[in-house]
């Protein structure tokens, strides 16, 4: 019996290994930028300390920060260019510049927040939130009347501004594209965006003075003045959000025979509700801290007033202004109430923004509604 053996399989030559060309000659470790930053800060601090001791002046924190940032940018660019290549060095330079710009922008924000927090806590108490300044001279009293007035006036301004602003934005995007009327409205909205707040207060005062005579002060006048400032912000923000809605969604709705008004209501608005809500809250934050128009329209009061259509009404910005500028004896009590009012105003704005984010998250179409 003969055994048949299979011929040996031909061996294939090994596939050539392709060498990938590297863009850089090396790579800095992740800790290197932080080490360079720390070294720059330390070296600069030593130099500034020596100069301060030699001249007998104080250590300049601002100058130290600026010079440390410049030294870091120079070092990180030079070292990265030598190790990683010129392209990566330029990238790290731009990254450092952007980070430094962000840090500079955060300095006044953090400084203001910290100053208001430190000074405002001293004036906060149960009495501050439960009583007004009626018959109060010196220590004691609170800002309940100002808190209520701020909420009522801002709420009335929002009720006036939000429908007008959203409907105007819908017309500009959905119905008025290319029309002269829409172009005129856009121009007027742009002009209104930049008007000073005192002009809005003068407008509301002049409007009511024509009907009720000079010297009139009411909460609704403040709401009208704030609505003049809110409407252009709502229009511009809502217009931009509506333009971001893809036209394919509108065309798909039209293809199903849905009329235009129902398409706007059921497709366009739900799709852009998150951005519109953010724009509305930005407009509220824009006007809730206004002082000049409310001084002219709502006036100054020391008692509770729940009626927007009768009598003067106090607000938190005006309360803080009057407590600080018209301080009595003891002065510290008035200043504490002013700082506490500023802190409460910031907290109210923060809560409104958190509520807006929650509303945008709940009603956003991304949740599968």
From TrEMBL:
<dbReference type="InterPro" id="IPR000515">
    <property type="entry name" value="MetI-like"/>
</dbReference>
<protein>
    <recommendedName>
        <fullName>Phosphate transport system permease protein PstA</fullName>
    </recommendedName>
</protein>
<dbReference type="InterPro" id="IPR005672">
    <property type="entry name" value="Phosphate_PstA"/>
</dbReference>
<dbReference type="InterPro" id="IPR051408">
    <property type="entry name" value="Phosphate_transprt_permease"/>
</dbReference>
<feature type="transmembrane region" description="Helical">
    <location>
        <begin position="31"/>
        <end position="55"/>
    </location>
</feature>
<keyword id="KW-1003">Cell membrane</keyword>
<feature type="transmembrane region" description="Helical">
    <location>
        <begin position="218"/>
        <end position="235"/>
    </location>
</feature>
<dbReference type="Pfam" id="PF00528">
    <property type="entry name" value="BPD_transp_1"/>
</dbReference>
<feature type="transmembrane region" description="Helical">
    <location>
        <begin position="61"/>
        <end position="83"/>
    </location>
</feature>
<comment type="function">
    <text>Part of the binding-protein-dependent transport system for phosphate; probably responsible for the translocation of the substrate across the membrane.</text>
</comment>
<feature type="transmembrane region" description="Helical">
    <location>
        <begin position="142"/>
        <end position="173"/>
    </location>
</feature>
<keyword id="KW-1133">Transmembrane helix</keyword>
<feature type="transmembrane region" description="Helical">
    <location>
        <begin position="185"/>
        <end position="212"/>
    </location>
</feature>
<comment type="similarity">
    <text>Belongs to the binding-protein-dependent transport system permease family. CysTW subfamily.</text>
</comment>
<feature type="transmembrane region" description="Helical">
    <location>
        <begin position="95"/>
        <end position="122"/>
    </location>
</feature>
<keyword id="KW-0813">Transport</keyword>
<feature type="transmembrane region" description="Helical">
    <location>
        <begin position="338"/>
        <end position="360"/>
    </location>
</feature>
<keyword id="KW-0472">Membrane</keyword>
<feature type="domain" description="ABC transmembrane type-1">
    <location>
        <begin position="147"/>
        <end position="356"/>
    </location>
</feature>
<keyword id="KW-0812">Transmembrane</keyword>
<dbReference type="InterPro" id="IPR035906">
    <property type="entry name" value="MetI-like_sf"/>
</dbReference>
<keyword id="KW-0592">Phosphate transport</keyword>
């Amino acid at each position: 019996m003969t055994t048949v053996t299979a011929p040996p399989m031909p061996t294939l030559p090994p596939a050539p290994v392709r060498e990938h060309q590297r863009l850089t000659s090396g790579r800095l470790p992740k800790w290197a930028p932080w080490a360079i930053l720390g070294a720059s800060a330390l070296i600069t601090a030593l130099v500034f300390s020596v100069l301060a001791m030699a001249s007998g002046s104080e250590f300049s924190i601002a100058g130290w920060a600026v010079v440390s940032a410049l030294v870091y940018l120079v070092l990180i660019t030079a070292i990265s260019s030598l190790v990683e290549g010129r392209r990566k060095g330029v990238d790290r330079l731009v990254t450092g510049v952007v980070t430094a710009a962000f840090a500079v922008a955060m300095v006044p924000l953090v400084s203001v927040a910290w100053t208001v927090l430190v000074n405002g806590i001293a004036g906060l108490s149960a009495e501050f939130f439960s009583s007004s300044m009626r018959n109060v001279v010196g220590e004691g009293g609170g800002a309940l009347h100002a808190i209520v007035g701020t909420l009522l006036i801002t709420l009335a301004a929002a009720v006036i501004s939000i429908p007008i602003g959203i409907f105007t934005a819908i017309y500009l995007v959905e119905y008025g594209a290319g029309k002269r009327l829409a172009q005129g409205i856009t121009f007027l909205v742009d002009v209104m965006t930049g008007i000073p707040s005192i002009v809005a207060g003068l407008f509301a005062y002049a409007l009511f003075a024509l009907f009720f005579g000079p010297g009139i002060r009411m909460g609704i006048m403040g709401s009208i003045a704030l609505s003049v400032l809110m409407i252009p912000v709502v229009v511009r923000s809502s217009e931009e959000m509506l333009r971001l809605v893809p036209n394919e969604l509108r065309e798909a709705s039209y293809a199903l025979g849905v009329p235009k008004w129902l398409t706007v209501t059921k497709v366009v608005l739900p799709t852009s509700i998150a951005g519109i809500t953010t724009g509305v809250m930005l407009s509220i934050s824009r006007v809730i801290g206004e002082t000049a128009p409310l001084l002219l329209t709502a006036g100054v009061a020391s008692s509770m007033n729940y009626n927007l259509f009768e009598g003067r009404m106090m607000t938190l910005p005006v309360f803080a202004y009057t407590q600080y500028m018209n301080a009595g004896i003891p002065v510290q009590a008035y200043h504490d109430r002013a700082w506490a009012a500023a802190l409460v105003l910031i907290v109210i704005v923060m809560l409104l923004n958190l509520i807006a984010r929650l509303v945008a998250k709940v009603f956003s179409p991304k949740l599968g509604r």
